[in-house]
């Protein structure tokens, strides 16, 4: 067994091992050694206190400047307040009570420097609040550890920690492991390391945790970043190679089938991009190995038409296609739009078409039985559904193509469950996303898929104008917003109003952003906003509400009413974020827009401007200019380029979130690698991995690398590879 795989309970004392597991989820020596410092403090130059946030568990480095004994207000006795400053003369105050105050007083003398860890809060007058750590853990720097010069120069590693587990406790545990580590089997070949000037693995691990200076730490980070990129790319390339070896039934194009008939009936010409991507997909479907392709495109770029043409090619060849949607609203919308686009072809029989069946979890017993029979018998060439398609008793006569809409909402297990319904041969798979993906993210997250991109909008799509409405600074702007909606309705058009939550704090559906302002009001709710509008500025308009907690039949009824123009305004949660297509809707108002992510805002505004009418999106927020939240909204307002916005979004999110680790509940394997800043590292690692695998596809001559990949997959951490 590799030393990396040794359980921590064997390498450390039981109490420490248990804490590391319960607080951080670390189980093995390898997990611990790859729990890298979050940052480094300099003993001689103290770190800043600028980046604190209320209720965050933080570690600050500073110098004690004074101690003050203060009387208790409501009971006898005193408590200790300790003032600490950092290198920029920012101050934070430590408070100690009871016996702990006497221990702290005996150790914390003015002039002493150290690390202080705890949950940070604000206290004091509202006009001049002060940062405070109540009963923090602390460790003082001891001058006797090394020479004065070495001590001042050596960076102090500060680790991500948690309740009952301090950064220095983690540092001590890592020290115990490093002292007994011994030689390691390096996963990177020596020639590769020499080509790129990379340290040995053991040397890099020592240097990342015990750097003598920042230059040594930088060399270690370079090596360990490359490890992360290289192992991931090797996994993805192996997956791609394995996928191409699976059998699949070829689905050739017919010159006189439904696809040709459909193309002849289209009331518009395909864009150049749609035609090109359609050719790529059609060629994939004609092969005897399964297609694994990602179709990404801007909101409204016409992905559904491209996917439908692929489905018709498969149906023409005697197979079936399944479209998997993440929500019932979206599944119903797809069913309506596909049926509408196909026209007579969706009726089958004498028209030479095929039945299009909808299958969702909330269908009545009779409708569900009929849908199941259509899928199992092959009567339905196209089956549209939600997670209900994944259930064991759902069978297909000849499943040839799986289309997954909004790919990031499904895990690998769900996709595999649908793949397995194709029997011995694998179905072709097309996954779609309207969230544009930067090149390096695509290379890393979807490295096992071929990627097609639609960047050209179809003719008839009108431009969307976006503005920020500063409701708190200029309340009359909000009044003008409602007037603007009325003007559009007077022209016969319709409007969406999106709110972060439904009507109770437990019912949030939006991507609510955390805030350090304790007095900030709760996020606006659909039910409250709808009531205010119907009692006020929209008293004579037809207003409907839509959210995820409504019964499916009611959601479908409301959406149909809005689509038919029977409602003027739809107040909704993000349930309308993707796939909803109402050409007559020209206005999108997003309340508390700062509580949504950049990509989500871009998706939402894509619901307007779909029918040739100019689109208008107004982002309502209380945040003033100069704040990070306002900067995000300004970025959305100034560009319609989804790829540019995806970079903005990615820069503001943790790498693990981007790769789906937060959603899956698993730790991300990307500890150091940053997808935007390390583009060159990722590209180089992919080239090197491809070269190595071309000569040793099963890694029989590279046991260390094979062990790393096995460890990655055995720990069930590979799920994030299939998400973004």
Describe it.
By secondary structure, the chain is an alpha/beta fold. It folds into three domains: 3-182, OB fold (Dihydrolipoamide Acetyltransferase, E2P) (Beta Barrel), CATH 2.40.50; 258-454, 3-Layer(aba) Sandwich (Rossmann fold); 464-639, Rossmann fold (3-Layer(aba) Sandwich), CATH 3.40.50.300. Helices cover 39% and strands 18% of the residues. The chain is built from 26 helices and 21 strands. Strands 11-12-10-13-14-9-15 form a seven-stranded parallel sheet, sandwiched between helices. The protein has a six-stranded parallel sheet with strand order 16-21-20-17-19-18, with helices on both faces. Helix 10 packs antiparallel against helix 12 (303-316) and helix 11 (272-285) packs parallel to helix 12. The longest helix is centred in the first third of the chain and has 32 residues, at 214-245. The chain is globular and about 90 Å long. The model is unreliable at 144-149, 408-412, 505-519, 654-667 and 716-724 (pLDDT under 50). This is Probable DNA 3'-5' helicase RecG. InterPro entries: DEAD/DEAH_box_helicase_dom (IPR011545), Helicase_ATP-bd (IPR014001), Helicase_C-like (IPR001650), NA-bd_OB-fold (IPR012340), P-loop_NTPase (IPR027417), RecG/Mfd (IPR047112), RecG_dom3_C (IPR045562), RecG_wedge (IPR033454).
Concise summary:
This protein has 724 residues and is an alpha/beta fold. The protein contains 26 helices and 21 strands. Helix content is 39%, strand content 18%.
């Amino acid at each position: 067994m590799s030393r990396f795989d040794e359980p921590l309970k064997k390498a450390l004392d039981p109490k420490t091992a248990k804490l590391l597991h319960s607080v951080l989820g670390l189980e093995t020596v390898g997990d611990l050694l790859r729990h890298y410092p979050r940052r480094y403090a300099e003993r001689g130059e103290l770190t800043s206190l600028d980046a604190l946030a209320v209720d965050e568990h933080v570690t600050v480095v500073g110098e004690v400047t004074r101690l003050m004994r203060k009387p208790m207000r409501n009971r006898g006795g005193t408590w200790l307040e300790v003032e600490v400053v950092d290198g920029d003369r920012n101050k934070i105050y430590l408070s100690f009570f009871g016996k702990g105050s006497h221990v702290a007083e005996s150790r914390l003398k003015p002039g002493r420097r150290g690390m202080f860890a705890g949950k940070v809060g604000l206290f004091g007058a509202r006009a001049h609040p002060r940062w405070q750590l109540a009963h923090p853990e602390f460790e003082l720097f001891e001058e006797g550890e090394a020479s004065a010069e070495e001590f001042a120069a050596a960076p102090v590693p500060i680790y991500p920690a948690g309740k009952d587990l301090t950064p220095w406790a983690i540092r001590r545990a890592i020290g115990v492991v490093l002292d007994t580590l011994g030689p390691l089997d390096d996963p990177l070949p020596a020639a590769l390391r020499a080509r790129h000037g990379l340290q040995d693995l053991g040397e890099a691990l020592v240097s990342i945790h015990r750097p003598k200076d920042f230059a040594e730490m930088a060399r270690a980070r370079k090596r360990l970043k490359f490890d992360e990129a290289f192992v991931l790319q090797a996994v993805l390339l192996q997956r791609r190679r394995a996928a191409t070896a699976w059998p699949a039934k070829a689905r050739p194009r017919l010159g006189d089938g439904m696809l040709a008939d459909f193309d002849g009936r289209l009331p518009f010409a395909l864009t150049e991009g749609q035609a090109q991507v359609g050719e790529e997909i059609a060629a994939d479907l004609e092969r005897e190995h399964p297609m694994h392709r990602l179709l990404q495109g801007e909101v409204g770029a016409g992905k559904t038409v491209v996917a439908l043409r692929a489905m018709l090619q498969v149906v023409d060849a005697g197979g079936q296609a399944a479209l998997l949607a993440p929500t019932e609203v979206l599944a119903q919308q797809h069913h309506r739009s596909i049926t509408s686009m196909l026209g007579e072809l969706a009726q089958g029989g004498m028209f030479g078409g095929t039945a299009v069946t909808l299958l969702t979890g909330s269908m009545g017993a009779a409708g569900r039985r009929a849908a199941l029979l259509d899928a199992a018998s092959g009567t339905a060439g196209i089956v549209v559904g939600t997670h209900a398609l994944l259930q064991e008793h759902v069978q297909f006569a000849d499943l040839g193509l799986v289309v997954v809409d909004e790919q990031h909402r499904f895990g690998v297990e769900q996709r595999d469950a649908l793949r397995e319904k194709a029997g011995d041969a694998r179905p072709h798979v097309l996954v779609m996303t309207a969230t544009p993906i930067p090149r390096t993210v695509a290379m890393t997250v979807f490295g096992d898929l071929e990627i097609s991109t639609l960047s050209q909008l179809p003719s008839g799509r009108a431009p969307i104008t976006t503005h920020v409405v500063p409701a708190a600074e200029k309340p009359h702007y909000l009044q003008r917003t409602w007037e603007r909606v009325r003007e559009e309705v007077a022209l016969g058009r319709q409007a969406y109003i999106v709110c972060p939550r439904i009507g109770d704090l437990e019912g949030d559906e939006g991507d609510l952003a955390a805030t350090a302002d304790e007095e900030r009001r709760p996020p606006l709710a659909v039910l409250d906003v709808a009531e205010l509008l119907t009692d006020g500025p929209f008293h004579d308009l037809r207003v409907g509400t839509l959210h995820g907690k409504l019964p499916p039949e009611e959601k479908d009824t409301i959406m149909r009413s809005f689509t038919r123009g029977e409602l003027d305004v739809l107040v909704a949660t993000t349930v309308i974020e993707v796939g909803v297509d109402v050409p007559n809707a020209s206005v999108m108002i997003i309340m508390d827009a700062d509580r949504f992510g950049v990509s989500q805002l871009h998706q939402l505004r894509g619901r307007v401007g779909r029918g040739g009418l100019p689109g208008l999106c107004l982002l309502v927020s209380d945040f003033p200019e100069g704040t990070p939240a306002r900067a995000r909204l300004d970025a959305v307002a100034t560009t319609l380029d989804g790829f540019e916005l995806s970079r903005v979004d990615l820069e503001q999110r943790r790498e693990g979130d981007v790769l789906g680790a937060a959603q899956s509940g698993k730790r991300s394997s990307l500890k150091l690698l940053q997808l935007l800043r390390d583009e060159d590292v990722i590209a180089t690692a992919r080239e090197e991995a491809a070269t190595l695998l071309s000569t040793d596809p099963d890694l029989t001559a590279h046991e260390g690398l094979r062990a790393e990949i096995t460890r990655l997959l055995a720990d069930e951490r590979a799920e994030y590879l299939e998400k973004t």
